[in-house]
Amino acid sequence: MTYSPITPTIPLDAQGVHHGFLRLPHSRDESAWGAVMVPITVIAGGQGPTALLTAGNHGDEYEGPIALQELAATLDPAAINGRVIILPMMNLPAFSAGRRCSPIDGCNMNRSFPGRPDGTVTQKIAHFIATRLVPMADIVLDYHSGGRTLDFLPFAAAHILADKTQEAACMAAMEAFNAPWSMRMLEIDSVGMFDTEVESQGKVFVTTELGGGGTATAASVAVARKGARNLLIHAGILKGTPQKAPSEMLDMPDERCFAFCETPGLLEPMVDLGEEVERGQPLARIWPTDRSGSPAQEIPARLSGILTARHVPGLVGMGDCVAVVAQRVT
Ligand code: CA
Q1: Which of 31, 90, 127, 145 is the most exposed place for a label (fewest CB within 10 A)?
Q2: Distance 290 CA to ligand 1 centre (A)
Q3: What is the rounded distance in angstroms from the CA atom of residue 321 to the CA atom of residue 149?
Q4: Does pTM surpass 0.90?
């Protein structure tokens, strides 16, 4: 096993319930011999597969941390066959600051995998997760939402993979999660993502986008909570019957899904989440913020489909992702 500076304060392979931390020494002005303490819970009962459930990869997304805090506090080891490893705030420094990226090193954890044992704080946490926790897991769920600058229709997602057996297992797990929408997902920038690392280790992987705008709603938390439970039942770890509701399948066929801003300004949404759009139809208009009496610039849809994501808050910057259009799979 490669060296890591991180020490878990609990056993990762014992039966029962253990709450503790991944302790990463972090010497700094405020604490000479201090540490970053990333919360971890391990719940094991009987024999069976291992699920790794993570949230707070981005620190300004809240459905996952809420659902996993509740699960960590309530899951009964007598109700499971196997092991559940829970990291509700995997990038704790970012989560504590309410920011996407870590204030310690500026790193986006979801571009920091597979990490480095001798790197920055974010890279060290990523390295421990990639080299110690992912290899223990059969199935991995990583919760995301839009954070402070995007808002999404609530969906679970799986990626198109070269290994079609693995892809089918990921798609089945995504369907088991049973969010209101299920996405065959295309990434803009997959290098360094946790997703890519987990999939490269041959694991079953599901991610989500459950809302956004820098907060959670009662409805989006309900999707997160139900999804974790359904996924654990699907994996054969949790006993019980899954809660099922209709889920519509969406596909992101190519980069025409994304609409990016080529002028900064005041965002006027012209379509709301979940609405149908036709190719060429304006998704948004961008009004100038420095003068009156000038026209807005329209941002057209590059393909027909459903508005799946939008920028928040009300001002957009150069190059921002303004909207995402996905297509219904019929
Ligand atoms: Ca995210």
Answers
A1: 31
A2: 31
A3: 9
A4: yes
pLDDT at res. 123: 98
Q: Domain boundary residue among 203, 218, 249?
A: 249
Tell how far the Cα of 55 is from the centroid of ligand 1, in angstroms. Answer: 9
The pLDDT confidence band at residue 288, using thresholds 50, 70 and 90, is: very high
Q: How far is the CA of 271 from the centre of ligand 1 (A)?
A: 22
Distance 29 CA to ligand 1 centre (A): 30
Gap from CA of 224 to ligand 1 centroid (Å):
14
Q: Cis ω on the peptide bond leading into residue 114 (within 30° of 0)?
A: yes
Rounded distance from Cα 320 to ligand 1 centre (Å): 15
Kindly state whether residues 89 and 48 are assigned to the same domain: yes
* Burial label, 166 (beta-carbon count in 10 A; 0-12, 13-18, 19+): middle
Distance between CA atoms of residues 311 and 317, nearest Å: 10
CA 136–ligand 1 middle distance (angstroms): 24
Find the mean pLDDT for residues 311-330.
96
Ligand 1 centroid from CA 147, angstroms? 6
| 200 and 282 belong to one structural domain | no
What SS3 class is residue 207?
Answer: strand
**pLDDT band at residue 195 using 50, 70 and 90 as cut-offs:** very high
